[in-house]
Amino acid sequence: MINSEMSLQNLINRVHEEAMIPQNVYAKTLRPLLPAEAFAPDSSKLVILLINLIILILGWTIASGLDRWPVYLLWLYLPFAIIMGNSVIVLLFSSHDLMHGSAIRNVRAMRIISLLGLTLLWMPPTLWKAVHNREHHNKTNSLKDPDRNYLYQQPKTWGKWIQNLFVPSSEVNPFWLTVGMTSAWGVHTFRNLTSVLLFNNESVDYVQAAFTVNSKERRAIAGEFLIILMLHLSILAYLEFNPIKLVLSYFLPIGIGYAGIIFYVYTNHMLSRMTSVNDPLINSLSIRVPKIFDLLHLNFSYHTEHHIFPGINSDYYPLVQELLKIHYSDRFNLLDAGEAWRLMLQTPRHYKDENTFTDWDGEKDITFPLGRSISE
User: Would you state the pLDDT for residue 310?
Assistant: First the structure.
């Protein structure tokens, strides 16, 4: 009986895998249809990163005098805080592209520039390279992906509890969803940072899928984090730890930036099923946003396209999308941003199995709203 059940499960697993198309197959099919310049480094993207660093520095320079502004005029700083918040978003997305090699290929320059770009995200570049480039991209939405939803079967740790409290779902409290929009990125960074620095063991249970780094990477992560900490303290000291200056020019822009980032992050994969084979058209989602946001945010809404060609110039994501519509229209997941958000608020956020979402208590089972089930 046990052997029969094992044989049936092996058959089911094989059917599931056969329904998937690996990322490299899409890449090999579409690569000849794209121009060579799409894969050439575009150093102009460094200018974008630099401009947004300057915007933040200018914002803090203006804020240094906020204690001399009449209280009734402080609201005039709010538009600049919003612009600074957008710069936080752009710094992550431009650093993200930089570390995929789409801007420059010089490793040392890449590390220095990305350190500046990721400072307000509290993300050491070496950690980002490990958690995002190495783990997430190679194991997208699999059991080994540290960026996936938690499994219902995983222990109810503080990490799982906070994510359940913060992420959009059919159970989320609007207040905690709002809090989560401004702080979930920080929780994500804290979980992975403490996991590798304090334990560096795959048995760590408060992250979705713990991973390890080698000793050289671990030392680099610790050193980069100390530099990031000193840079933040320098900003706070420059603002004289003044509550008004800190709220308007530090906490508010960072909160706005994190909210914008996490909106994209939530829709990237959290509505998608788990896959044992890394199939970007099944485990990823692209969204439609107003063109101004694609312009400002380096086409980050084209996320499935990015997972097929991680190192491509982001200017060419729309062309990749057109090719996907032609060659894989029956598999490609593309939704308006508002529709994706609505679906997230109508579904639970824990994986029960590869085809089913469930809630914290395992009482509500919902089949994935995107595309076909794996067994189809």
Answer: 97
Q: Tell me if 301 sits within 8 A of 263, measured CB to CB.
A: no
Domain boundaries, the chain: 2-367
> Could you give the CA distance from residue 306 to residue 229 in angstroms, rounded to a whole number?
31
φ and ψ at residue 152, rounded to 5 degrees: -60, -35
Largest CA distance in the chain: 80
State how far the Cα of 128 lies from the Cα of 278, in Å rounded to an integer: 20
Q: Beta 286-288 vs 334-336: how paired, if at all?
A: parallel
Quote the CA–CA distance of 281 and 374 in Å, as a whole number.
Answer: 12
Residue type, 309: F
Q: How far is CA 55 from CA 84, 109, 118, 199, 246, in A?
A: 7, 22, 15, 38, 16
* CA angle at 206 for the pair 217 and 226, rounded to the nearest 5°: 35
pLDDT of residue 368: 81
Residue-wise pLDDT for 15-61, tens only, equals 344 588 999 999 999 999 999 999 999 999 999 999 999 999 999 99
